[in-house]
Automatic annotation (TrEMBL):
It is found in: Bacterial flagellum basal body. PANTHER family: FLAGELLAR HOOK-BASAL BODY COMPLEX PROTEIN FLIE (PTHR34653:SF1), PTHR34653. The keyword Glycosyltransferase does not apply. The gene is fliE. This is Flagellar hook-basal body complex protein FliE. InterPro entries: FliE. It holds the Pfam family FliE. HAMAP family: FliE.
Amino acid sequence: MKVDANSLLAMRSAILQQNSALQKAAAKPAAIGGVDATGPNSFSAALTDAIQQVNTQQSNASTITESYERGETTDVASVMLAREKASVGFQATLQVRNKLLSAYKDIMSMPV
């Protein structure tokens, strides 16, 4: 697969569409992962769903990398793209975890 200006623009457009869809979903207090967003388990359901998506991305990246190593595919760009998606997803999850831990520590250190 050759990487040219048209394919880069198409990838950019797809990323922007996904970003727009995520922003719309975040703006709605509707159901997340089949659970009502006003319910007591909505945050945990959203977090679980996000972690599962990151896990899926990492599994896909591993599968594509192994396929490339075996010589079954020669598309280096798709391998690197899958690995970067998995890396970005993991880093985002790690930052969310760090923020949650920080918030927890702040709450626990508050005087009652």
